[in-house]
Design a protein that fits this description.
CATH architecture of the largest domain: Orthogonal Bundle
Order of helices and strands: HHHHHHEHEEEH
CATH superfamily of the largest domain: N-terminal domain of the delta subunit of the F1F0-ATP synthase
Largest sheet: 4 strands, mixed
Helix content: 55-70%
Strand content: 5-15%
CATH class of the largest domain: Mainly Alpha
Distance between the termini: 45 Å
Oligomer: single chain
Number of strands: 4
Structural class: alpha+beta
Number of helices: 8
Shape: elongated
Number of domains: 2
């Protein structure tokens, strides 16, 4: 279940502290690391299951906080999440926090999906084009999906540029059906 409103509140508070302390990168890295660790159901259960005593859950979080770093402020923030029974929204907090850091730094994340692997030069040109369109620095990840047949699909935030053969064939099919 998504708790986006709560995640935004916690992320906003941590962002304000991180901005003041110039610790945004450290906090972001720590949150992303924790979100990755929490994909393991057993670890998440150890933090959110009320069957475990609060002091046990605190110790688990303290161990995780020490492993991912982020400093004393991050450790206290994570302990607060456990105390308030909000450790279950940590992945969402990490996502919202990263979006806030990206916005602050005029940066966005994008994905380009192609039917075959593309080389670094072409990926660089695609990134440059997306940067011109969005007016932001784009961090581009690449995916391969043979189902699109050819061409590419580029996504940056809400912007989707679909130049795939699959979509073009679907459009031709729909126009033929419309005329029949």
């Amino acid at each position: 279940m998504k708790n986006t409103v709560l995640a935004k509140r916690y992320a906003k508070a941590l962002f304000a502290v991180g901005k003041e302390d110039d610790s945004l990168d450290a906090f972001s890295e720590a949150l992303q690391g924790l979100a990755e660790v929490l994909k393991d159901a057993e670890v998440e259960d150890a933090l959110v299951n009320p069957v475990y005593p609060l002091d046990v859950r605190r110790k688990v979080m303290a161990t995780l906080a020490g492993a991912v770093g982020g400093g004393e402020v991050m450790a206290r923030f994570l302990e607060l999440l456990v105390e308030k029974r909000r450790a279950g929204i940590l992945a969402e907090v990490a996502e919202v926090f990263q979006a806030m850091v990206d916005e602050d730094r005029n940066r966005c994340r994008g994905t380009v999906v192609t039917a075959v692997e593309i080389d670094d030069e072409l990926a660089g040109r695609i990134r440059e084009t997306l940067e011109k369109i969005t007016g932001k620095q784009v961090e581009l990840s690449r995916e391969v999906d043979p189902a699109i047949i050819g061409g590419m699909v580029a996504r940056v935030g809400d912007l989707v540029l679909d130049g795939s053969i699959k979509t073009q064939l679907r459009g031709i099919k729909d126009s033929i059906k419309g005329r029949a």
